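1st attempt posting a full record on here, be nice pls
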Amino acid sequence: MKVAIYVRVSTKKQDETNQLPRLREMAKNRGFEVYREYTDEASAKDANRPGWQDLMLDASNHLFDAILVTKLDRVMRSLVQPNITMDN
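the predicted structure (as tokens):
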């Protein structure tokens, strides 16, 4: 299975160094091929994050099978967030 890794931090005081190794290890342990790593430094409320937009574009082009994140709140603040959608 080909996967994308997505990492988001919300402030300059945070960094993705604790998220990336965990996700890389998860992919390795499960035998997943990592297509690409996407990162953002922005609020989850902002759907126009560059890394997120790249991820959604690649997803719409079916370049990978799944997305790995450490926690759902790295992607969005709630499951009902109308400004983040994915089309098939």
